[in-house]
Amino acid sequence: MTAAALLPLLVLTGCSTALPTPDPEPVPAVAPPVVSVAQAQRVLDSVAEVVAAGDAGNDAAVLGSRLEGPALAIRKAEYVRNVATAGTRPPTVLPFDEQALLVPETATWPRTQLVVTEQPADLQAPRVLVLRQESPRAQYKLWGWARLLPSVQTPATAAPEEGSPTLPPDAEGLLVTPLDAVAQYTDVLANGDASPHVGGFAPDAFRTAIETERAGVVTQLGDAATLTQTYAPVGEPVVTLGTVDGGAIVVSEIATTSTVTLPATGGSITVEPFYSALAGGATTAGTSLTRTFSGVVVMYLPPAGSDAQIQVLAGEQSVTGASAQ
Questions:
Q1: Each residue of 35-47: pLDDT tens digit?
Q2: How far apart are the C-alpha atoms of 148 and 126, rounded to whole Å?
Q3: Using one digit for the tens of pLDDT, what is the confidence trace for 234-254?
Q4: Which of 14, 40, 237, 275 has its CA 20 to 30 A from that of 229?
């Protein structure tokens, strides 16, 4: 969806007396925001219709017109899970009513905006929806979503009518660059308190949930198998938007690989139906079972010189692949 183009004022002149020429309106110092609040809600409504159509029949084929990136990968896997579990684990309920809108101030593409949703009726946390427009004539697509974490303090951003400045992945003037912030956070996820970067990040519920789940798996496995997990950024941040205080909100995709490996002495792993469906129908693994996760993190980077820590505002990940050996 693109905003309507502004038509230039045509000044007519005659062969005798010139007509009065109106003074042109002043050119704004910065580019106008790329989408209005009303337009953003129309985009959300269109995305919601496509998601509802896909959910109704577990039909991933209809999603491509309005979903991409981790959102598309996760929704496809959720349909596989829904079928494999006979409907006992349906797709994530996504709210599409806008509570707050973060709009970029840019004249280039791709363009990415963030929508903080209203709280869903089931009282889950609001979501941060990431919407992306690839080119001027392309429709906005849902690139990803993340669960807003409890008790976070969201930094002030420009009003939607003004738009927030977009910053490059290697932007200076922040505690660290957006690229480095995501890389450091994945190291914290992998190594916990042993990471050299742990002091730069405030505690967050997303990391806590990952560490709790990992510890539970290790305890469950005992001496029967070992667990290895790796975390890594997927490319550059999809968007970095400046905040009023000179900091920035960074959105990035992260990939997690979790592998359970049996000892050389033998044994087997029973593969549950969902992972079996993702792994091509394998019901047991004689060597290892690997799950891959697609995730989205939204974090706040304070400005350079600040005493504040980097804060994760929202995060969510879901299994999108599996393999058994």
A1: 677 788 899 999 9
A2: 6
A3: 999 999 999 999 999 999 999
A4: 237
Residue 157 in tokens: 């951003």
Give how far Cα 243 sits from Cα of 162, 178, 185, 197, 230, Å: 12, 13, 20, 23, 31
Does residue 6 contact residue 32 with C-beta atoms inside 8 Å?
A: no
Strand stretches in the chain, DSSP E: 98-102, 104-105, 111-117, 127-133, 141-148, 164-165, 226-233, 239-242, 248-261, 269-270, 284-285, 288-301, 311-324
CA–CA gap between residue 114 and residue 314 (Å, rounded): 12
Q: What is the per-residue pLDDT across 146-190, written as a single tens digit (0 to 9) for each? A: 999 998 988 999 988 889 999 999 999 999 999 999 999 999 999
302-308 long-range contacts, CB within 8 A, separation 24+: 302/174, 302/175, 302/245, 302/247, 303/173, 303/174, 303/175, 303/245, 303/246, 303/247, 304/172, 304/173, 304/174, 304/175, 306/175, 306/247
